[in-house]
Amino acid sequence: MPFQNILGKSIDELSVGERAYFAKTISETDICQFASVTCDFNPAHVNEAYASNTFFKQRIAHGMLTVSLVSNVLGTQLPGPGTIFVSESVQFLAPVFIQDTIEVVVEVVELDREKNRMKFKAWGVNQNEVKVLTAEGVVMPPKKRRP
């Protein structure tokens, strides 16, 4: 079992109320690469001239790029490597612009040990403490085998 040592927390190692954090400054490169990977070239994200005539007056990051910061926390910290997404519901509350620093928090809200499911809530705030998103969802923490 060579992967045993790199797995995140199992359901038995988690506790309700536990939190993890991640912060990232969204760059021009992040937006261009996300557009390239997803083929989402919506001009609100990639065209400054178009975006200058929108409600936001400038380009905004893809909503799903911001949500992926939640995925980062779940897949690298809480529960961590080996975690599988089951579901997520997201509300976008404010735009994210190039050079915004977004801090995402994920909190364990419920554990179902029998089904190996962890319910979480998450939120993200920018450098001005404006909440840009809230989310809730379910993941399957990694299962660890006993030696």
Characteristic terms for this protein:
Thiol Ester Dehydrase, Chain A; alpha+beta; five-stranded antiparallel sheet; 5 strands; elongated
Number of separate strands: 5
Averaged pLDDT? 94
Q: DSSP strand (E) fraction? A: 25-35%
Percentage of residues assigned to helices: 10-25%
Whole-Å distance between the termini? 9 Å
Find the structural class using helix and strand composition: alpha+beta
Shape: elongated
Tally of individual helices? 4
* Radius of gyration, CA atoms, in whole angstroms: 17 Å
Spatial order of strands in the largest sheet: 1-3-4-5-2
**CATH-assigned fold name:** Thiol Ester Dehydrase, Chain A
Q: Can you identify the CATH superfamily?
A: Hotdog Thioesterase
Going by CATH, the architecture would be: Roll
Number of individual domains: 1
Main β-sheet description: 5 strands, antiparallel
Spell out the helices and strands N to C: EHHHHEEEE
- Quaternary: single chain
Which residues form runs of ≥5 with pLDDT under 50? none
What's the CATH first level?
A: Alpha Beta
